[in-house]
Structures are given as C-alpha cells and as structure tokens.
Structure to design on (592 residues):
C-alpha cells in the first residue's frame, strides 16, 4: 500500500504526475487516481487509500478550490494530521485549510531544487518518519524517473506528401516508433497521447524537452508518393539542442518495416543503451509483413478515430477496409481486432442484427492472445446477455494488457456507465479523453457524469474542452452531426442557450437521420428544460433504437427530468415492443 496520496483537480494532472514522479524518484510509495482498478468502486478505493496513507499531498489550484472531491480529501487528511499542501497557480487554500502552511509552486516545472518543492518533501518525510522504503511494486515507477537516465519524446512526424489524406500514414509511423522504443527497458518514452499534443505546433525542441523533462527529442517527416516513401528523422539533445543522429531513408514502400526497424535501432545505438535479450526481436515484430495490409490498417484506424460516430457509414468503411487488409494478410491480428470493434458498433449501436463481431474478435485472439481490444468486444456481448461479472472480467483483462489504450479505456467507460455505475465510469472517460486529443465524445460524457454528481467545476472544465474539440472537428468536417450534438450538450451545460439552439438547427439540417446525434441534441435541450423540443427530437431515435442504445438511455441522468412525461414513456414502450423486451429489462443508474 502506498504511503503518499496525491489529491488534485483534473486540470492540474500534469503537476500531479510531476509530483508523483519526483517523490517516487526519492524512493517513496505514491498513489494517485490514475491507478484506479477497474473492478472496484471509485469512492471505495479513494477512501481506503486516504485512510492508509501517512501523508496526503493536496495540490491546490482554482479548480481544486471548487472541487468537492479535493476539499473532502483535504478535510480527511486535516483531521488525520497527514495534510501537506502546495499551490501551483498562486491560489491560496480555502478555509479552513489556509491555516496550514502551503508551499508556493506556481510555474513549477518538476525540478527537485525548487524551494517550495524542498519544503513539500521535508514535510512529507517528517510525516513518514524519515522512512523511504522501495518495495517491489514501486521499483518500476522509481526506475522510470531515476534509473532511466535516458528519456525521449517522439514528436509526430510531419506529413510532407502534399496530401492531407496521407496524414494517417505519417501518424502511424510516429506511433509505431513510439511503440518500438517503449519496448526498450532502458529507455523512458513519453506516451503517444502526450507527444501528439504537439502536433501542428511550431515548438522549440529544447522547450519540449524542458516541459516533458526528457533528455532527447526525435522529430521527422514522411513523404509517401506512389510506391515510394521518404522518411527523414533526427535525434536531438533536449538540453543542448544539438543533433545526436540524423538520417534519411528513400526506399520502396515495401521496405517500410525495415526502415522503422533501422530508425529504432539507430536511436538505441545513438543513445548508447543496451537491448536486453528479446527486445531486439520485439522491435522487429510488426503483426504483419505485408506493407499493403499495414497501409490499409492505418487508413482504417484513421477513419475509426476521426469519423462521425453516429453515422453508420464510418463503421461500414472501417469494416470494408479491414476486410481487405485481412484478405491480403489473414494473420494480421490488429486488423481483425479493429474490424471487430467496428462490427460491434454496427450490431449493438446501429441495431444491425446480421452483423456478428465475435468471429473477428476470436480470430484476433487466436493470432495474438494479448490483443486487448478483442476482450472489449467479448465484454459487449456478455454485458448485453446480462453476464456482468464475466463482462467485467473481460474488461479487467483488456486493461491489464493495455492500460494506455484509447479504445480499451473508452469501452470500459461506456460499459461501466451502461451498468448504471456512473461514478465508477469517470476515471476511464477521463483517461480516454486524455489519450486522444481529438476525442470530444468521451469529454462530453464527462459533462453528463459530473453534472449528475453536482460537480460544477468539472462540468465547466469538461464542457469547455468538449466545445474546443468539437469546433476543431467541425472545421475539418462541417457535416459531422455527431460532433454538433456533443457540442450542444456542452453549450447547454454552460448555459449558452442561444448558441445551443443554433447548433441544434444546423445539426438537424445537415444530418437528420443520425439518431445518435438526435439523442445528444435532446440531452442538451433537456438541460435547458425545453421538454417539447426534446420529445420532438428524440422520436426518431426511439423509432430505430437498438437494445444497447435503449439501455444506455435508461441509465443516462441527462433524461431524468423527462422520464415521467407520458409522451416519453409511450416512445420507450413502443421501442420495447419492437425489440421484444420489457421495462424490467432496462437498468437504472447510480451516481453514488
């Protein structure tokens, strides 16, 4: 069990991670809520960790002051005599915590020499009695910040093809190099979701290195034309700004895997780190030896990530491309797994009963038993059959295999929400939204979750983030009705009724048959208590709803105020009759 508990608002997650890393580097056992297990209730774990901790570090900020959770955790620590406080934006702790010393760490970059940080460490070590054990569970975490003297960020490679539609290929190359380097135990590699926040930003390499506290930065470009590819890459010393290594590869597209291997191995050589037995082979493992199948997979995943979720055409395109990829290489497990994710959407979200996702998922697992996404597909089937314990076991396996996977966290979040466990779903929605900078959907789901808990500060934070992401999505695709629907919910949550109504009109005009979009629009107008408009919007949804969607609406707190409306109840009854189900088949939600 960890000795130190870190409490913070989500907007200061970066500072919380820096604090945890600094304390672990000193040999302390630290816990924060990014380590929440999938199988236990959120509140239960928080309370248990708080009670067991010898020191509770509260990171105060403007959002933390407003957070009921941070205040409650700080109050528990104050009563137990374990409270240590730091402020990262100059905001003083609220009453009664302002009577206890608080270290000023405004603009802190994670450096261990800052006077405020030394004060925090001294206070924590006083509470711990000077005892700084490192136990087996903490060895990996400590090494990641202390023993690994070499750390690297792989910036997204620039697409130099002159065709924006080729961006999926340069992104895929970047992600695969990150994956390759992550297999080297002597290297600390910045996660892809963090690295991709620098995409399309004109940044100085030394600034990136300082912000992420890494020793080296890799940047590069990809030009793909016809059957040839040119990849340039340069490894830069993050502190001095000097080039450590650089090369250019101008080859046939069929050599793409050899190029990736050469880049990864050249970086390892330039950094003078040693590959352990098996790591060289792991780097060379691609899942497919066919570059055409690989190219198709990257294309399908780009559609999956950026497409209009409420539009079944997105899922049709992903399935079709993956089918082609698996025809070319039947042994490509990643393509089978992605196909099954799209098929499960078609079956359970769009109500296409003829579509069966299990064969593709089982094929993926037969080829690679460690492919996490396929366990999520299993969980969907199990949950719809009411086998919740088995479904959750499959989700636990997926999280154990790939805890940093966007699809996995997204699926865990929605299936947990679908069980009516709204509070428990929050950490996974947060993780999914953090893992994918363009993910407005999970961000909008957090608006729903936090609103049901009465956490106004987090509602505002997530709503503003959702609108920012929606605006980017609409700029890229003005016909993205699902994005508009998510945006309307957030605008309504912020009280911007005029803009919410304007976006609603635009969405219905652009994509009137998108029932998922209509559902989100209705939820937004329910926030504004415009219940006649809600009924009008949601009618086509219930006329075509699948059982999965119907169960989702049954636990969704956004619609609580309209459930007693006879018109709403009549629509639900009609959907139940069409699906051969009963009211008793629908779950209920629990915000506690």
């Amino acid at each position: 069990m960890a000795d130190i508990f870190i409490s913070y608002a989500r907007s200061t997650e970066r500072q919380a991670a820096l604090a945890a890393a600094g304390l672990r580097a000193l040999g302390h056992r630290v816990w924060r809520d990014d380590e929440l297990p999938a199988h236990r209730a959120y509140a239960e774990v928080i309370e248990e960790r708080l009670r067991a901790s010898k020191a509770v570090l509260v990171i105060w900020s403007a959002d933390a002051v407003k957070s009921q959770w941070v205040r409650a955790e700080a109050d528990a620590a104050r009563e137990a005599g374990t409270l240590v406080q730091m402020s990262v934006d100059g905001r003083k702790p609220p009453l009664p915590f302002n009577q206890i010393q608080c270290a000023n760490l405004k603009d802190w970059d994670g450096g261990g020499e800052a006077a405020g940080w030394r004060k925090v460490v001294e206070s924590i070590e006083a509470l711990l009695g000077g005892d700084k054990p490192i136990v087996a569970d903490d060895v990996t975490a400590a090494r990641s910040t202390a023993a690994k003297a070499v750390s690297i960020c792989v910036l997204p490679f620039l697409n130099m093809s002159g065709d924006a539609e080729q961006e999926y290929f340069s992104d895929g190359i970047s992600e695969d190099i990150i994956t390759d380097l992550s297999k080297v135990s002597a290297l600390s590699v910045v996660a892809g979701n963090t690295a991709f926040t620098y995409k399309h930003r004109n940044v100085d390499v030394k600034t990136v290195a300082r912000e992420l506290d890494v020793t080296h930065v890799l940047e590069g470009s990809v030009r793909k034309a016809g059957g040839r590819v040119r990849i340039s890459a340069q490894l830069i010393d993050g502190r001095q700004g000097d080039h450590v290594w650089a090369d250019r590869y101008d080859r046939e597209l069929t050599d793409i895997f050899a190029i990736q291997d050469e880049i990864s191995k050249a970086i390892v050589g330039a950094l003078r780190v040693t590959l352990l037995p098996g790591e060289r082979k792991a780097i060379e493992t691609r899942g497919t030896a066919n570059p055409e199948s690989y190219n198709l997979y990257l294309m399908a995943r780009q559609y999956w990530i950026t497409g209009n979720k409420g539009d079944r055409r997105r899922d049709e395109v992903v399935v079709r491309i993956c089918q082609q990829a698996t025809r070319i290489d039947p042994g490509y497990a990643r393509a089978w797994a992605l196909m099954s994710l799209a098929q499960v959407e078609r079956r359970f979200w769009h109500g296409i009963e003829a579509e069966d996702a299990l064969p593709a998922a089982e094929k993926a697992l037969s080829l690679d038993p460690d492919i996490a996404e396929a366990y999520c597909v299993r969980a969907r089937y199990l949950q719809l059959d009411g086998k919740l314990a088995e479904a959750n076991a499959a989700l636990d396996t997926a999280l154990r295999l790939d805890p940093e996977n966007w699809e996995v966290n997204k699926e865990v979040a929605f299936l947990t929400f679908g069980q009516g466990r709204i509070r428990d779903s929050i950490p996974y929605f947060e993780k999914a939204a953090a893992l994918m900078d363009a993910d407005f959907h999970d961000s909008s789901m957090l608006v729903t979750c936090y609103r049901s808990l009465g956490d106004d500060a987090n509602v505002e934070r997530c709503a503003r983030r959702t609108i920012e992401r929606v605006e980017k999505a609409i700029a890229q695709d003005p016909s993205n009705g699902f994005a508009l629907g998510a945006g309307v919910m957030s605008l309504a949550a912020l009280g911007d009724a005029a803009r919410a109504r304007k976006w609603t009109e635009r969405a219905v005009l652009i994509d009137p048959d998108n029932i998922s979009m209509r559902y989100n629009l209705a939820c937004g107008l329910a926030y504004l208590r415009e219940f006649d408009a809600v009924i009008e919007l949601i009618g086509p949804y219930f006329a075509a709803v699948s059982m999965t969607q119907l169960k989702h609406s049954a636990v969704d707190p956004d619609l609580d105020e309209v459930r007693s409306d006879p018109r709403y109840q009549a629509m639900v009854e009609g959907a139940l009759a069409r699906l051969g189900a009963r009211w008793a088949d629908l779950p209920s939600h629990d915000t506690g």
Q: What stands out?
A: Residues 131-148 have pLDDT under 50 and may be disordered. The first strand starts at residue 4 and ends at 7.
